[in-house]
Design goal:
- The chain is of the alpha+beta class.
- The chain is built from ten helices and eight strands.
- A hairpin with a 4-residue loop joins strand 1 and strand 2.
- Helix 3 packs antiparallel against helix 8.
- The longest helix is centred in the first third of the chain and has 24 residues.
- The two termini are 39 Å apart.
- One of its GO terms (molecular function) is ATP binding.
- This is Protein kinase domain-containing protein.
- InterPro entries: Kinase-like_dom_sf (IPR011009), Prot_kinase_dom (IPR000719).
Amino acid sequence: MGLTGDIRAVDESYVVKHPKSDPDSSEEARVYNEMKLEMMNVERRIYERLGPHDSIIRYYGPLDDSGAIKLAYAKQGDLEKYIPRHEMPSKATRIAWIRSLIEGFFHIYSSKVLHQGIKPNNVLVPYGSVKIIDFANGEIFPPDTGMEKVYTDDPFAKGDLCGIAGVIYSVSAWRVFHYEYFEDNRFPRPDEISNTEALLYRDIIDKCWRNEYHSIRSLYEDFQKHEKEVITPDLEKDGKPRMEFMLWFCAVPSLTLAFESASFRGIEMIQRVPEGSGCS
C-alpha cells in the first residue's frame, strides 16, 4: 500500500493500483481526493511514455475510468524487504542488477521524465530481476524538452541522482540504505552516508553523493567508462562469475545489445556457451 494508491493483487499475473480516496464529505477530503487522482493520472501518463522496458515494471494499461492502473505482480517484494531476508547474491548477479537499474534510470531520463522517488522500496525483485516502480511523485515533460536544462533549473531533479546512489549502494553492499534528499533538498554530508570501501561501483556511488554529476546523462556516460575500465577487467579475472554474468545477459536481449553497442570486450563468450545451456 503506497502513499498515493492502494495496491490489490488480482492474481499472480497483475495487481491493480487504485487512487487513494477519503470518504469524508469535507472540502479538505475533496481536495485530497483530487490531488491523489491527479498523481495517479501522472503516473499513468509516465508508464505510457516509457513503454515496455526490461528494467521497469510492466504496465498493462488503465483498469477503467476511475484512475486505477494495472501493473505486473511481483510476489518477491521490493529491495527494502528482499535484502534482509536473502543472502547476498554473487558478484555477477549484483553487477547485472546494477547494470539493469542504470539502464532503466537512463531510459527514464531519455523519456523526459523525473522519477522523484528513487529508493530501495521502489525497486521490485521479480524472479531474480529488478524492476523500477512507482512514478506517482514523478514529473513528465514535453518530448522536445532539454533535460540538461531541467537539471540546471530544477533543484528537485538532483533528487534522482541521490536516490540512484542509495539503490546502487544497497545492491552492492547488500545492505539497505536510503538518504532522503527531499527533506532538506540537499545531498548528504560525509557523516550521513555509509562507507563505500571495496564496494562494486564505489566511484559511481561516491560521485553521486558528492553531487559531481550534472544529470543522469553524465552519470550514465561515466558508468559506461567504469564498465570498460573496471568492471569488465575484474570479471575477466574470475571465469565462473563472468560466465554467470554473461548467461544472465543472454536471457535479457536488450541488455546484451546495450553491451554490444558499448564494445563490451567479453561478449564473445556468449558464442562459446555449451549447446543446451538455455542461452539462445
